[in-house]
Task: structure prediction
Amino acid sequence: MAKRIESVGLSAYYGGFRAIEDVSVVIEPKTITALIGPSGCGKSTFLRTLNRLHEVVPGARVTGQLLLDDEDIYGPGVDATGVRRTIGMVFQRPNPFPTMSIYDNVAAGLRLNGVKRKGVLDDAVERSLQGANLWKEVKDRLTKPGAGLSGGQQQRLCIARAIAVEPQVLLMDEPCSALDPISTLAIEDLMTELKDRFTIVIVTHNMQQAARVSDRTGFFTIEATGEPGRLVEIDDTQKIFSNPGEKRTEDYITGRFG
Amino acid sequence: MSLGSLPPVTTDPASARPGAPDQPVPSLPRTAGRTAERRGDRAFRGLSLSAGLSLLGIILAIAVFLVVKAIPALQDNTASFLTDRVWDPNNAQPAFGIVALAFGTVLSSVLALLMALPVALGVALFISHVAPRRLAGVLGYVIDLLAAVPSVVYGLWGIFFLNDKVVVASAFLHEHAGWFPLFGGDDIFGRSIFLASIVLAIMILPIIASLSREVFLQVPVSQQEAALALGATRWEMIRTAVLPFGKPGVIGATMLGLGRALGETIAVAIVLSPAFVVSLDILSTNSGNTIAANVALGFAEASSTGRGALIASGLVLFAITLVVNVIARAIIYRRREFAGAL
Result:
């Protein structure tokens, strides 16, 4: 199920611009890793290299290795769509498919995988919605449009959609930045539950959030505009927030810059 | 209430106003009148309202004109207007029926739509989601250019260039697929409903493609990435995120195209050999006629009753277009909850 991620000398480019440089990191299975850092430091770009979504932007490319349990997902002959089927993603703004019902949103990934039998879909939809703590709220209106839910519910619907295909890794790109504090709390509780089944990587601007939910925290930064982003350090969350190894990390988390 | 701390009564605005002694002092600037509406807002509302009303007025005027002018001719008609397949309104005993014309109009337009829609959607998707940016720009420009070509040019091209090719294709279809209801019939010599449909299809293709492309470009990147992140291939992403999102817009574009096909006059009048028959043998010469083309061909030599008959046919065309648009609206309205705008 949950897999280990290791990046080796990973760099990502947008055309000629190098967005992140030489990121080497190990992410253990069934942990939550938070990536923090100032805007434009490349943490979201790094997240998008983990499921090969980076390369859908025209001109974008990646160098280096990214091992998912020893298999390089950028290796020759590896199909990007296959990678994305094993690594789920939740985005900054809730993006349920507006033309689909709640049920169809959750079933979308399974249908892409060719699952057609209604019994299988029904089970997966219920299990995923329960996994996303949304089942009780929507079980009587599964045929209603997903876009009719509140922002926090929509984001949990997107989480249900992502976990419905039983991915090995779950990536979350600032999943709470468009939500109110109560919805944020619901998502954070959910992440702690999902940790038992998935390897979770979350990008967040909210340092309290990183401190609350994550086991490990990585700090990205850039030297100056136009420079590539680099991973300054990654360590146990408690250590990063109490006694970071780098002065730049300490400056950032204490609010002295960024 | 103690008045000790208040200013003298005569200058207190609240109590100076007769009939409302306890009303609080207005603290925001007020304008006279029922609502606090500024002059600019009023002018804008008036202008936009009258623009909207004038549109309704024009449609009403057209409908009234058609009905009033058609009635005398319909009263003189010796045939049944709705069912007889004849068009001889300039006779001393005028006889004319709409069924053949209405059938030809709808048949040629629907065939044109069936031919144009898949190609138009393919072109629109290619430009919006597949082609490299520079090629997409050039293609988009060409499509807009095609939409701007006058219909008389399409008509001339259809009769002098396309007709020969269509005759060859018609003979082939008739020979190898003559069992198919549309490909039967005799005298396959061109100038058929088939030729008219092809010309119409080429004419409405750029309209549908251009509007659909605009709709497909509106699909939010977040929707497309949601599909890709689930492991969708490009085609699956288009099927999951792009097509459903664009559906109402594509229906609208299709209806605009169908509207143009239904009302197209000169191109059909040029290419079609008119006949007042209800026939599915679209490959045959004299396989039908359309309302608009019939008006164009018949108006110059029409008697007063003949003109009335043509106007009556125009009224039917008006009604057909109205029905088509109502159906399109109903389709979009039925799915409004899932309309896509976030």
Notes: The mean pLDDT of chain A is 92. Chain A touches chain B through 33 residues (CB under 8 Å).
